[in-house]
Amino acid sequence: MDILQTIKLAFRGIIDNKMRSFLTMLGIIIGVTSVIALVSIGQGTTAKVTEQIQSMGSNLLTVNIMGRGATTTLSYDQAMEFMNSSYISGVAPVISDSVTVEHGNVNEEDITLQGVNEYLLSVRNYSVDNGRFFTAQEIQSRKRVAVLGSEIASKLFGFVDPVGQTVKIKGYNFEVIGVMKSSSSMMGSTDEQVFIPITLAERILQSRGVRMIYIQASDKDAVSSAKTEISAKLDKIFRVKSEDDNFSYRIFDQSEMLETINETSKTLTMMLGGIAAISLIVGGIGIMNIMLVSVTERTREIGIRKALGARKIDILNQFLIESLVLSGIGGIIGVIFGYVTSWGLGKFMSMSTKTTLPVVIIAFSFSIFVGVFFGIYPANKAGNLKPIDALRYE
Amino acid sequence: MVINLENVYKIYEMGDAEVHALDDVTLKIEEGEFVAIVGPSGSGKSTLMNILGCLDTPTSGKYEFEGRDVSRLNDNELAAIRNRRIGFVFQNFNLLPKLTALENVELPLMYAGKSTSFRRNRAKEVLEAVGLGQRLHHKPKELSGGQQQRVAIARALSADPSIILGDEPTGNLDTKSGREIMEILKALNKNGKTIILITHDLNIAKQAQRNVHIQDGRIVKDEKVVG
Predict the structure, then answer these.
(1) The CATH number of the domain where B188 resides is what?
(2) CB B55 to CB A16 under 8 A?
(3) Which of A301, A353, B124, B154 stands the most exposed, by the fewest C-beta atoms within 10 Å?
(4) Which of A6, A308, A380 should be substituted to probe chain B, the one whose Cβ sees the most B Cβ atoms within 10 Å?
């Protein structure tokens, strides 16, 4: 018997039982919608994080110094010796502490003070919005100048242009020479930070030496060579004998970080998708449940059809197609809702979502698969009914 | 010979007891006969009808339908016989309530794998033949009992079977409609169809050419109707 006719019949059955059909499909609709929405969130987040890391420059190396014995830091001059390497184009050591920054009678507590040098801007891909950054001369001469993060600048000065004004930190007056462009990334934001020359920071914070150095390799291919040179030098300073023995420092590069984060977010996405897929399976059980009820309700119809010459396969197909049509329509509605939901989450909840075609196809195919899988048992039950038993059924 | 039953038994187990619904039944029906199988309820006539219609199989004995041994056929082959060789007319019509008259009549043709246009035309043809040309798109519940039974007869005829099996076809109808149905069946018999009716009503039975009386699963009398 022809499939088209069966599909037509299945549609008619669904329309005849609107409420029941809708409730049956609801499980599939919710399942497909949540698979698409959750995976979209996962993929959107992954894409955003990756983009942020890449925006920090793929040739950035981050060196953390833990030290060994009494030597727990590098001196600023030692750190700057890395500049001699031909693989390295910028070295930006950082000393930081939490301070209170004052201007007039406004003061802001718990502000991160960063002692930096002139290389920071290029090494970290930062930019200055208003005014300028430090010169090498100002770093060397320990000039009392400061660059403010955008948030702290507006908190202290409101609508007044901060450049040329004075701020007070730990009792010293600093002339503001610039305001950073607002930025936020994986590695934190500069918006709530205040920058001063590192040479001055060593004195004000009474902190000798640096624990954190940002190093820019001259290009992407120089990253591993730069890493080797830095290691060699630090090994000598901290007398590290082998890789396993190294508790004195850590060097991170971007690709490593990218890999770790990608791995993590992929796992997260899979997990979200998996949880949503469970609801699809629950939806499938709903379909099976209704199909079983339907087979019982229609036992007599099955008997009539068999008396008129329907074979087992005809009846089986009829019920299988019905459950397929149910799950298929549910799947299509779910795909539409999924798109709308992820679009809505992006638009109104400012979450980063990214709906890709493969996910939509997988979610839809899975709903079809669920329809077939959970439809087979009821359909088989219907097909196996003996015509005489089915006809006698009241 | 259309039907040849030899020493057929149908035995149901009811707990410890065995019920002989059919007890050593031997029956031959030739092509073109109009036979009424008569008996009170519980006599085994419905069981006989189910076996004749290939809806059920005997416990033992031989059943040849148009020369083929039914016990050797598989489910699909039995379905094909029901589909193409036998037309059923039931007491309670057994139409599918959600389908129109036309679609109900098309069903056997659909299972026979006929094309849509063929089905349409053939279904119209047989519905017109039973006088329902104006009711093609009505659902069963929009039709009277007599009209529903005529749809059922049209359905039984659609695949052009050689025999029509009627299980109390007039049982649920008023006298007038019942008479109309009998007239249609008689006309069909005149055109060469073999007709087998199951009934407990002697008035109906005497309109056939031959009456087979059954009681407690046995054939007690097999006589030609004179008249």
Answers:
(1) 3.40.50.300
(2) no
(3) B124
(4) A308
Interface contact flag, A314 B111, Cβ < 8 Å: yes
Q: What's the rounded Cα separation, in Å, for the pair A280 and A274? A: 10
B82 to A309: CB separation less than 8 angstroms, yes or no: yes
Which of A204, A225, A247 terminates a domain? The answer is A247
Q: Does any CB of chain A come closer than 8 Å to the CB of residue B11? A: no
Q: In the numeric block, which tokens belong to residue A288?
A: 């099976």
Same domain? A75 vs A224? yes
Comparing C-alpha atoms, which of B68, B30, B67 is closest to residue B189?
B30
Q: Looking at this predicted complex, what is its ipTM?
A: 0.93
Contact: A309, B83; criterion CB under 8 Å: yes
Q: From first to last of the 394 residues of chain A, give the pLDDT tens digit.
A: 567 877 887 888 788 888 888 988 998 999 999 999 988 888 888 888 877 777 766 688 888 888 777 777 888 888 888 888 888 888 999 998 888 998 888 888 888 999 999 998 888 888 888 899 999 899 889 899 999 998 888 888 888 899 999 999 988 899 999 999 887 665 668 888 999 999 988 888 887 788 899 998 888 778 888 888 888 888 888 887 777 777 788 888 877 777 888 888 888 888 888 888 888 888 889 889 988 998 998 899 999 999 999 999 999 988 899 889 889 999 999 999 999 998 888 888 877 888 888 889 988 998 999 889 999 999 999 999 988 888 887 6
- Domain for residue A57, yes or no? no
Distance from CA of B12 to the nearest CA of A (A): 14
Rounded to a whole number of angstroms, the distance from the CA of B55 to the nearest CA of chain A is 6
Residues A266 and A138 in one domain: no
- Among chain A residues, CA nearest to B110: A1
What count of CB pairs under 8 Å joins A to B?
64
Q: Determine whether the interchain pair B98/A312 forms a contact, defined as Cβ–Cβ distance below 8 Å.
A: no
Task: Give B55's contacts in chain A (Cβ within 8 Å).
Answer: 306-307, 387-388, 391
Closest A-chain CA to B155:
A308
Residues A181 and A235 in one domain: yes
Does A161 map to a domain?
A: yes
Please, what's the b/e burial string for A284-303 (b: 16 or more CB within 10 A of its CB; e: otherwise)? bebbbebbbebbeebbbbbb
Say which of B55, B84, B94 has its CB closest to residue A388. B55
Q: Which of A247, A278, A302 is the last residue of a domain?
A: A247
Q: Which of A324, A83, A339, A326 is nearest to A216 (CA)?
A: A83
Neighbouring residues of A212: CB distance < 8 A, sequence distance ≥ 6: A62, A63, A64, A65, A93, A94, A95, A96
Give one word for A310, left, alpha or beta, with left for phi > 0 and alpha for psi -120 to 50.
Answer: beta
> Could you tell me the two tokens for B128?
């017109």
CB atoms A391 and B84 under 8 Å: no
Chain B: closest CA distance from residue A387 (Å):
6
The residue written with tokens 């990253």 in the block is A223
- Residue B67 at interface with chain A, using a CB cutoff of 8 Å: no
Under 8 Å between Cβ of A194 and A167: yes
The total number of structural domains that make up chain A = 2
| HEC assignment per residue over B191-204 | CCCEEEEEECCHHH
Q: How many CB atoms lie within 10 A of CB A133?
A: 21
Do A241 and A326 lie in one domain? The reply is no
Q: Decide if A252 is inside a domain.
A: no
Q: Look up residue B65 and give its two tokens.
A: 């339908």
* Domain membership of residue A130 as a residue range: 67-247
